[in-house]
Fold this protein.
Amino acid sequence: MPCNIGIADRVVRVVIGLALTVLPLLTGFAAGSSWLWWAALVVGLVMLATAGMRFCPLYTVLGIRTCRP
């Protein structure tokens, strides 16, 4: 898999991914709606995974590349 996520994009993904992962686990975020709790958790984990791999499948489909060649 070629790298298609740059440094700035990676940092943003980690920050948002951590927030979306920690928010449901440590707070009462979406306490009345379990689907919102799960959605935040899954999206956060996906963002952390794509930042870790430095590859985003959606970027490949859309032809976006934020890292230097």
